[in-house]
Specification:
This protein is 23% helix and 20% strand. With 490 residues, it is of the alpha+beta class.
Amino acid sequence: MALVTINGQTLEVPDGTNVVEAAALAGVDIPHYCYHPGLPIDGNCRMCLVEVEGARGPQIACNTLLRTTRNKEGDEVPAAVVKTETDAVRQMRQGVMEFLLLNHPIDCPVCDQAGECGLQDYYMEHGKHDHRSVVPKVEKVKAQPIGPNVILDQERCILCSRCVRFTREVTKTHELVIAGRGDKSRIEVFPGTELDNDYATNVVDLCPVGALTSRDFRFKKRVWFLKTASSICTGCSRGCNVHLDHDGGKAYRYRPRANEAVNRWWMCDRGRFTYKAINEGRQRDAKVGGQVVPFAKATQELRQLLGSGKVGFVVGAHASLEDMAVVKWLSAALGARAWGLDWSEQGKEDDFLMKADLTPNRQGFALIGLDSDETSFREALPGLTALVTVAVALPSGLVHARTAALVTHAAAAPESAAVVLPIAMHAERHAAYANVDGIIQHVEPAFEPAGDALPASALLALQGAGMGYPLPFDREGVWKRLDAERGVTA
């Protein structure tokens, strides 16, 4: 561990920590453009210049690395004494901002990055200078598609090189380069290629200005109208952590949320665009016999099916851990059988983040203790008096004549289902999912469930309560019982 003193505050940090990260631990924000914790240090933007005691001239904080330092007596002393708020530092930041804005177009009113732009933010905090240049701004290519998901505006680029380093060091696909010299330098795609790898849209998240924008999100919504919920991508079993940006009960985009243990700072494009499923094709109404009915009538029909005799439950891998637990408990109370099965198609897998299993919670079957033997389900199906499915689409040959389908999307409900009830998605509830590595991840609701939907765990627990089997129906109650079963103490 190394000692560092920042603005008079001394703290201990791991060896190798740079001053930008050390300052953040001390609650001090050092502005920066080119530095990103997931990329090799480049040190070209100079926005993070600070004063370091004893150093010759200003130092870039991103590449000032801290290591254990001792004096002649062997006592540990600060590896660096850093000042981030002196008059000299403020003047340097203002000078960097003036330089970066010399050729930057005044596009803010029509720029998709407005509201989350590093240039705007740092200008207000560290710039506020008069524009002194009398030379015409350099013109470059604007609004150029460079791949299926990304638009490039060369005039807005500040050449931080984050995108170039990402394609060079992370995806290793090398599509982006810096071409030209001096004020003619610009980001370009390598000749004969386009930015079309499985992680291409991460360069939009990396870009601190409006040079790289998403073709999907472009001009859909001003970001200051958006609210953000902490969630996960349910596009595969990796369960990448995401920011879910939304407004008015509609999801507008996913952005990767940093988690070193799961997805680091990235996510794949396949998963990124699965946010659309939150908005599209949802089951909003309850149905009995194919006809829309009041929600109370449908739950009454469901209760009759649950009490009809030999009932079976099938819960899919898109269901939450809470859903699976309540299915297990309710089936045990009814003397019924429950299976954890899913017939979702397989997808592409790589050695980075993408997994072939396109469901978020298959590990939950074993964690909760559900039977995942499809053969036993097929053998038992003919003898069931009713079948309740939760967040799963059954193959056509396995649909029971008296099926109650609890689904998020209309396409998952069989046409012959006796009862169809809408249930909430991950974006509409508190829930937990176990990813491919068994890591349990919790999500928070972004907005209210679509239509009449309820979380499946709450819906089934309420049905059980109405039949004389009290079950926990909220997150706290479910996890209290789960922890008790697993021997976990608070």
